[in-house]
Structures are given as structure tokens and as C-alpha cells.
């Protein structure tokens, strides 16, 4: 019998085919003013034994599918059979990618987390990457030798929510860290051997703060030079402090044209050698696809933003401002 595993609510789009392993529950910080994902939910560390049980449950699932496929003479179509059965993380030649949930797995002490990652890699020897979200502040606080230990255990990629490189905005949205700490965290992660994915939130500066948001975010990313940069535009969610501020008129959501100008400025200032800068979140639909490599695709990305700007200027602002989410549109 296959045991039920616990799975968290979020993962990056690039982890759609990863085995999700929940090592902590919810977010240990939970104060970012734009974030609704874990609001009102208590943070919990899971025990090593609980997580290992989940890893073994996933292994049981794989073994059960393999047995069935072999009996049916379809042993070479393991991945297809898994997908038909709602398991997107198993491929024909095994499990290739795993993602540790929830919001900040590195908050767990280094020793138990290393033990979990090593067990995961032993249980699924075909794994090519093991990734996790991590708060910048948590990575900043880890000693270099702790990061190296996690890397040696098999953790290979960290996804950090930078959101903005502007100190004033970081403080205003209660990110709980500074631009300098974000730079140090990113550099430490890369020096320890991790692949690093940094998230930027277009629109977070609002109408008044877009320029400082764009310029300082580019400055911080230039200092880190991460492997991946992901844009994830602001979308106000009910129940968040930023939603309430917008409702009270204390935060002025920018227009689509304003946010496109902000992204243009950000890309102009960006001087990195990242493998990928991407807009692979649904909330970015208005920018018409910003995907490329740096520095070679910089001009291509600027042209694509210019096309999106021309299109929005031609058609006019959308009736529903996408950054307002469910908030009454009259607030713009
Ligand atoms: S650290 Fe991440 S998950 Fe936690 S509140 Fe901030 S944005 Fe949300």
C-alpha cells in the first residue's frame, strides 16, 4: 500500500516536473506585505523521520508504477504511465528533479537538512537536481561551511525572492532584509557551488517608486550575477497589508505602461551573464514574453518590451489593472 505524502501549496514554475518534498510547513517569516500564500498559518519544522517517511512513500509510488508497467510489457514507458496517473515527476529513466518545500527550507538546521537531502539522493539515485526556496536573510546567516555541506549532500539550486534591490522598498514591504544582505547571500550561495535563481517583482515600487526599484534591483543583481533571473509581477491579494494600503490610498499601483517602463529601465541597467532571464509566471502576461540570455539577448529583450509598450499605447490601458488583483479597480 502506498502511504499518503504531505505536499505544500507552492513551487516555482520551473519545478512543475519535480518531486515535491515538504521539509517545513508554511513560512517562518510570513511578514512580506505583498504575500498572501501563508498568511495566518503557523510555521512548523518537520522532523527528519517524517520527511524520510514521505521520501519512502514517493519511492513506493515509483516502485508500484514500475511493477505495473513491467507486468504490462510497458517498462520503457514509465514516464508516460506516471503522467497518465497524475504523477508528473517520474520520467522513463527515473526521478530527475526534486524540490524541497515550503518557503524557506534552509531555516532548518544544517545537519538534519543535509541528512534529508542525502537520504533523498540515495533513495532516488537518478536525481540530477535538488532545489529549494530560501529566504535571502536565512542564506545570509548561514556560515559558508554550512552552505558547502548542504551542497555536498546534494542540494543544488536555490530560489531566492529578492523582489527589489531598493532598501527603502525592502523596508516598506517588510522583506526583513537589506540590499547588502541580499548581495552577500547571493554571492555566498554561488561561492558554495549552488545554482542561483533570483526573483524580481515588477510593480512593487508603485507609481512613485518604480525608478528606484528598477535601478537598485539591477544594481544588486549585477553584484550577485545569478544563474537565473525570474520576473514575477505584483498582483495584490486580498488579506495582505499591501492590499489594505492600496485600498486606503497609501500605495499607488502603477499602470501597465508604467511597469513596462520600469522593466525597460531594469533591463537597460542589467549587466549580468545569466543563463536565463524569464517571465515564466502567469502574472507577467502583459509584457508579452521576456525570455533570453544575458548579455547577448539584451537588445532582443528591450525590443520585446518596446513592442509591448507600443501595443498597450495603441489599445490603451486594460479595463482591469492586472496589478490590482481582486481590488476594486477604481483604486488605480
Ligand atoms: S518570505 Fe516568501 S513566503 Fe514568506 S512572507 Fe515573504 S514572500 Fe511570502
Shape assignment? globular
Ends: how far apart?
54 Å
> What's the CATH C level of the largest domain?
Alpha Beta
List the quaternary state of the chains: single chain
Measured on Cα atoms, how large is the radius of gyration? 21 Å
Task: Please trace the helix and strand order, writing H or E for each element.
Answer: EEEHHEHEHHEHHEHEHHEH
Summarize the biggest pleated sheet: 7 strands, parallel
Estimate the mean pLDDT confidence: 93
How big a fraction of the residues is strand?
5-15%
What small-molecule ligands were found?
Answer: iron/sulfur cluster
Q: Which architecture of the largest domain would the CATH scheme give at its second level?
A: 2-Layer Sandwich
Please give the domain count. Answer: 2
- What structural class should be given to the helix and strand makeup? alpha/beta
CATH topology grouping of the largest domain: Transcription Regulator spoIIAA
**Number of contiguous helices:** 11
In total, the number of strands is: 9
Report the uncertain regions. none
Biggest sheet strand line-up? 1-4-5-6-7-8-9
Helix amount, in percent?
Answer: 40-55%
Amino acid at each position: 500500500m502506498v502511504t499518503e505524502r504531505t505536499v505544500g501549496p507552492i513551487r516555482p514554475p520551473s519545478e512543475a516536473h519535480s518531486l515535491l518534498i515538504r521539509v517545513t510547513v508554511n513560512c517562518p517569516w510570513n511578514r512580506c506585505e505583498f504575500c498572501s500564500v501563508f498568511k495566518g498559518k503557523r510555521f512548523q519544522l518537520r522532523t527528519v523521520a517524517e520527511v524520510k517517511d514521505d521520501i519512502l512513500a514517493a519511492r513506493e509510488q515509483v516502485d508500484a508504477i514500475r511493477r505495473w508497467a513491467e507486468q504490462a510489457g510497458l517498462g520503457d514507458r514509465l514516464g508516460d504511465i506516471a503522467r497518465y496517473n497524475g504523477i508528473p515527476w517520474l520520467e522513463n529513466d527515473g526521478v530527475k528533479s526534486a524540490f524541497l518545500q515550503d518557503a524557506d527550507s534552509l531555516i532548518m538546521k544544517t545537519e538534519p537538512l543535509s541528512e534529508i537531502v542525502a537520504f533523498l539522493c540515495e533513495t532516488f539515485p537518478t536525481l540530477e537536481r535538488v532545489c529549494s526556496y530560501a529566504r535571502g536573510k536565512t542564506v545570509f546567516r548561514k556560515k559558508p561551511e554550512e552552505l558547502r555541506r548542504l551542497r555536498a549532500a546534494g542540494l543544488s539550486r536555490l530560489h531566492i525572492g529578492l523582489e527589489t534591490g531598493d532598501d527603502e522598498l525592502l523596508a516598506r514591504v517588510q522583506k526583513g532584509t537589506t540590499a547588502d544582505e541580499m548581495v552577500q547571500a547571493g554571492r555566498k550561495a554561488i561561492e558554495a557551488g549552488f545554482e542561483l535563481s533570483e526573483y524580481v517583482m515588477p510593480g512593487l515600487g508603485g507609481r512613485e517608486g518604480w525608478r528606484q526599484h528598477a535601478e537598485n534591483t539591477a544594481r544588486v543583481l549585477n553584484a550577485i550575477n545569478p544563474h537565473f533571473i525570474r520576473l514575477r509581477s505584483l498582483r495584490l491579494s486580498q488579506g495582505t497589508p499591501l492590499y489594505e494600503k492600496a485600498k486606503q490610498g497609501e500605495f499607488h499601483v502603477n499602470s501597465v505602461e508604467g511597469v513596462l517602463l520600469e522593466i525597460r529601465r531594469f533591463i537597460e541597467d542589467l549587466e549580468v551573464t545569466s543563463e536565463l532571464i524569464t517571465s515564466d509566471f502567469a502574472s507577467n502576461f502583459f509584457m508579452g514574453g521576456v525570455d533570453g540570455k544575458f548579455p547577448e539577448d539584451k537588445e532582443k529583450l528591450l525590443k520585446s518590451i518596446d513592442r509591448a509598450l507600443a501595443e498597450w499605447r495603441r489599445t490603451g490601458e486594460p479595463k482591469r489593472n492586472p496589478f490590482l488583483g481582486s481590488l476594486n479597480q477604481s483604486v488605480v
